[in-house]
Design brief:
With about 100 residues, this protein is an all-alpha fold. It is about 90% helix and about 0% strand. It has three helices and no strands. The protein is rod-shaped, with a radius of gyration of 35 Å.
């Protein structure tokens, strides 16, 4: 009786040890991976916001830069409109538009 009880305790101890190791390795790795992803994502987001705000400050610190960009875009738009009016057959939808 004493021998069978002793072997049952040893078997239960080994079983719980194996079960604990498996649970810790599977659950622990997923929890660590989730934590690392959240921390890395937050750090990357902060860095992206910092870079974007720095770049915006350097790009739009002077009104002449904004005015120059506006004038460039205005010139590009007017040249594209002129091309569409001069060569409407290059675009099928433009051809249908100009035919009416």
């Amino acid at each position: 009786m004493k021998q069978t009880l002793y072997s049952k305790f040893i078997t239960a101890y080994i079983f719980l040890g194996i079960l604990g190791t498996v649970l810790i390795s599977t659950l622990g790795s997923s929890l660590i991976q989730k934590h690392i992803l959240e921390d890395t994502g937050a750090a990357l987001y902060k860095e992206a916001i910092s870079l974007a705000s720095y770049q915006a400050n350097t790009d739009y610190s002077d009104n002449t830069d904004v005015e120059a960009a506006y004038n460039q875009l205005k010139n590009v738009l007017s040249s594209e409109v002129a091309i569409l009016f001069a060569f409407p057959y290059f675009c099928a939808s433009c051809h249908a538009f100009f035919a009416h």
